[in-house]
Amino acid sequence: MSSDNIFRSRSQGVPSEGVKDQYADGKAARVWKKYIGDSNQRTKNYREFLSGLLKKHGCEKVLDAACGTGIDSMMLIDEGFKVVSVDASDKMLKHALKARWEKRKDPKYDEWVIEEASWETLPKDIGTFLPGAQFDAVICLGNSFAHLLDEYEDQRTQKMCLRNFATVLKPGGLLFIDHRNHDAMINSGATPGHSIYYNCKYPVDIKTSVLVVRGKPEIITLDYCIDATEDGLITEKSEFRLCYYPHRLHSFIRMLDEAFDNRAKHSIYADFKPLEQVDNPAYYIHVMQKALD
Ligand SMILES: C[S@@+](CC[C@H](N)C(=O)[O-])C[C@H]1O[C@@H](n2cnc3c(N)ncnc32)[C@H](O)[C@@H]1O
């Protein structure tokens, strides 16, 4: 793959202004369900980690701030939580809305709210359909937050979005937010094909490219190739590209703490285990507990 192919100035479907929807061309959205696998078999470690911590803290009302096709939201509804799901991509939301329709006979799903909203304008967007709503927990998982690139080179949009997550949390509420181990990816130039979140049964190849600007890694581009031809429903391998801001662990910790005015309790997990138990994790998961007053 040539470098010209990797660093196109603008990919198809990405607007020049407003929220950038990397899923706008529908390619990733179409194959996403195959990539994440069966939602009923959400990886046991993930289900137990998330639902265990939410229950331990008495959380009931959860905002899934990057719901995508709705997989995390459905897992939480099945675990008895009340879920509001938002996402900026209508191509992804289409699949979540379809999933809710398919569950319409299950009373647990009667109160599932699905709406379009973006992190940049989260409190305002939520105010249009649930005025004044605050949540016991907000989740932004599956390496979603790293989709937000740094167009001003000072991370101001990322900082604003983290503050927006804090705003829609009740005092004492929890934010769950993750990123891949970009430190390791930058050093090795590779991304693990298997995700701790998903149960993809098809071979997944991920090509990793790192764009370094003035000595600083600015964008990681992952070219996914999923070979789901064996089930006969599709004849070609599915390919899609996603770009990420390569959050490094230590700077992300600082940015998160500042978004909560350095008053939140900040716990960090590695692949859902205590940090010290995993040497070279694929993901870091941060849990912020907003201060009580
Ligand atoms: C990697 S997908 C993960 C979806 C889901 N959590 C999962 O694990 O399958 C990332 C999601 O973040 C959403 N997203 C990216 N930027 C966003 C923004 N600024 N506001 C709201 N959603 C955004 C994308 O549209 C996409 O659905």
UniProtKB/TrEMBL annotation:
One of its GO terms (biological process) is sarcosine metabolic process. Keywords: Cytoplasm, Folate-binding, Methyltransferase, Phosphoprotein, S-adenosyl-L-methionine, Transferase. It is an enzyme of class 2 (transferase). Residues 1-20 are annotated as: Disordered. It is found in: Cytoplasm. It catalyses: glycine + S-adenosyl-L-methionine = sarcosine + S-adenosyl-L-homocysteine + H(+). It comes from the Eukaryota. Its EC number is 2.1.1.20. Residues 1-14 have a biased composition (Polar residues). One of its GO terms (cellular component) is cytosol. Pfam families: Methyltransf_25 (PF13649). GO terms for molecular function: folic acid binding; glycine binding; glycine N-methyltransferase activity; identical protein binding; S-adenosyl-L-methionine binding. S-adenosyl-L-methionine binds at residues 23, 32, 42, 66, 87, 141. InterPro entries: Gly/Sar_N_MeTrfase, Methyltransf_25, SAM-dependent_MTases_sf. Residues 62-173 form the Methyltransferase domain. Gene3D superfamilies: Glycine N-methyltransferase, chain A, domain 1, Vaccinia Virus protein VP39. Belongs to the class I-like SAM-binding methyltransferase superfamily. Glycine N-methyltransferase family. Homotetramer. This is Glycine N-methyltransferase. It comes from Euphydryas editha.
